[in-house]
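Lab meeting notes turned into a lecture example. A postdoc, R.K., suggested we walk through two folding results consecutively so the class can see how the record format repeats. The first protein's sequence and structure tokens come next.
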Amino acid sequence: MKDLRRYLVLKYVQYLVLSSSNAISTFLGLLGSLYTIIILQSAKVSSKSTAVLISSLAKADILVSVSVVSEMVVWTFDVSISSTAFTSALLQNLLTANAHISCLLLSCVAFEAYLITFFPTESRYLRTVKNATLTSRVIWILVTAECTLFQTDDLLKASSTSAPNRSPCVLLFHFSSTAAALLKSLSYFLGILLRIVNVYIYYKIFFSMSNR
């Protein structure tokens, strides 16, 4: 459990403290996720809702691995890509999806810690493996839909730039562009809100434990 707590601290620093990930935090995050996945396979770790959320958090770094490995392959072997703009946008959207999934899951872990600290008995029916699994799946589905919209918008922008006069989907382009812009703004403000909420939760937990 101590290792899992250290992993959570690492992830909080990476996604909710730092304004943007850097090479060092990304590398440490990938190593931590790999180690965490191995730990969670152990029979010594009980199957609880927190473990389910942490497992989903660690698996989210698969998206980072795909992006990093793809860039390394292109850079090392000088691979030529037929659609550079599409691939670049896809890799960036994978990183965005990873960040959003991680922030939401970390917030779920923080909320569960709040319930355990202040409402241990009353919240027991909420803190189940089934609910944690369902929450993780919903988060993945929503962020996947978000990533798909961003990728569609990037693809339509590239298509309209290369052939602006023969684009048959002008309405679709404007709709996806507007929806993507609104979603990016919503994600930005939601990210700020999650940071504030997480700080407040751990502030309350810290002082509650100190008073005890």
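The second example is placed directly after the first for contrast:
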Amino acid sequence: MASGGLQLLGFVMAFLGWIGIIISTAMPQWKMASYAGDNIVTAQALYEGLWMSCAMQSTGQIQCKVYDSLLKLEGSLQATRALMVASILLGLVGMFVAVTGMKCMKCMEDDQVKKMRMAVFGGVIFIISGLAALVATSWYGNRVARAFYDPFTPVNTRFEFGSALFIGWAASSLALLGGSFLCCSCPRRETSYPPTRGYPKNASSTGKDYV
């Protein structure tokens, strides 16, 4: 029962992490314009994401523009896109595989060994998915930080971390923890020893040996 509860907890955490990765990928707030310079302009807020750039006016109106061409984008942005999309697809596969191996599901009840292996395999896929998202968000955040502290970057073109990065970091951590719990939910096999056979008691010796 303890392993079943750990398995369910791991699946819920991994599923929530996968949903967070999808939300982070779709959000345009991967980086936001910084107003740390002398000339503070609050008329609009600028955001940039993986798929579009947006400008929010002081009135609350948001205008977004999808990137025109994929070939004109930076290679690092394309790699970040690919990692996040791969993370989403891996999470989808891991979800179906883990559901098959869940103890609360009736499929594959005849072979409990294969059922447990499916749950562990689903956990491994979730771990890979979380690692892909963690690498993508950390890489993107590192680029934003390096450009911010670069003295050759103009003050009015500096960006800070957006909310999508923080959601991505939290979601990837959930996917990693959930996948780890799924891998640890498989109960260890106890070594079974053959039953000891009792030896018959020797008949009471009469003190005489018969040949």
